[in-house]
Specification:
By secondary structure, the chain is of the alpha+beta class. It has a domain of about 150 residues: Urate Oxidase, CATH 3.10.270.10. Helices cover about 25% and strands about 30% of the residues. It has an 8-stranded antiparallel beta sheet with strand order 1-2-3-4-5-6-7-8. A hairpin with a 6-residue loop joins strand 3 and strand 4. Helix 2 runs antiparallel to helix 3 and helix 5 crosses helix 7. The longest helix has 14 residues. The protein is elongated, with a radius of gyration of 27 Å. The N and C termini lie far apart (about 55 Å).
Length: about 325
């Protein structure tokens, strides 16, 4: 098949794909590179703070605190800064940097290696990686002896600036139940004063914890799960029989909390860990009483650190 062109236009080109074509070094060298074109920059010749790729996915290796290697699907965002004199970056180099380590165990230290590598390859001043994945931890039921896999949304993030300074962060979502203290007291009042059965309201809730890890320190995902569990107590359950459901009701009665309480409880837990130099906690209680949610954000208060400016509470819907 040929493209039909009117008289005076360029000759028609046959539409076909040559599956037998073989690349030669000479042909490869002849390929045009738009990044080197003299008139390549369009618009304002100004720096770009972040440019790169978002949500490219591949299976990566992680290691549990017990030493078990896990293969998990990860979604990765990688970006670098771009100087005003440069047209753009070779984005495939960011992706290839991960494939070079696809059989390695991924840690915050591994991100530092990759950042240094692709910051050099792309000739950038600043670089950033964020990789998100779902991480399984086996959870035991409260009384029945059953167990099941609880999955946690986790992100590893690393940044490197023009001086080579590396900073590492972990973001961790913890889902729990929150029983309202006010509703609990009002229910007890109805029972005691009017002999009326009432059920206090509670709801599924989520705490999103983001921490900055101290240089050279190791904080595992299991560490963060333990911090949140110790602070909030009422994590949602995986495997439940009647005895577990009763235990969970008792636990919610023992650990009633407003969203303000939840944020402060997690604050106290994280502040006690010297490996964590800064943190932010965003809590959302998906109210069963109201048509809106109750939210609270708190940060450690480190100068120049997190600002407790979390606004994307819709992403905390459980």
């Amino acid at each position: 098949m040929y493209l039909h062109r009117s008289s005076g236009q360029a000759p028609s080109i046959e539409r076909k794909y040559d599956a037998d074509f073989k690349m030669t070094p000479a042909y490869h060298a002849s390929l045009p590179d738009m990044m080197d074109a003299e008139d390549a920059i369009q618009g304002a010749a100004v720096p770009i703070q972040q440019v790169g790729v978002s949500n490219f996915q591949l299976p990566l290796q992680f290691q549990s605190a017990a030493g078990k290697r896990l293969t998990l699907q990860a979604a990765i965002t990688g970006s670098v800064s771009l100087e005003a004199t440069l047209k753009g970056i070779n984005m495939s180099r960011i992706v290839r940097s991960f494939y070079e380590h696809e059989n390695d165990v991924f840690t915050l230290g591994r991100l530092q290696e990759i950042l240094a590598k692709y910051r050099e390859k792309v000739e950038s001043l600043d670089a950033r990686i964020k990789m998100s994945f779902s991480y399984p931890i086996l959870q035991e039921s409260l009384r029945s002896g059953l167990s099941g896999w609880q999955y946690y949304d986790v992100s590893f993030e690393g940044t490197m600036d023009s001086t080579g300074r590396y900073r590492s962060f972990i973001e961790f979502d913890f889902v729990y139940s929150s029983a309202c203290p006010c509703s609990a007291e009002l229910s007890e009042h109805a029972r005691a004063v009017r002999d009326t059965f009432a059920v206090p309201h509670n709801q599924r809730s989520k705490a999103r914890v983001k921490i900055e890890v101290a240089d050279g320190a190791i904080v595992t995902i299991e560490d963060l799960q333990a911090h949140c569990l110790n602070a909030l107590k009422t994590e949602t359950q995986v495997m439940v029989k009647r005895e577990d459901e009763q235990a969970f009701a008792e636990m919610n009665g023992a650990y009633i909390k407003f969203v303000e309480d939840a944020a402060r409880l997690v604050y106290a837990e994280l502040a006690s860990d010297d490996r964590i130099v800064d943190f932010q906690v965003a809590c959302s209680h998906l109210e069963s009483l109201h048509s809106h949610d109750a939210v609270s954000v708190i940060c450690k208060g480190v100068p120049g650190g997190f600002k407790a400016d979390f606004t994307d509470f819709r992403s905390l819907v459980c």
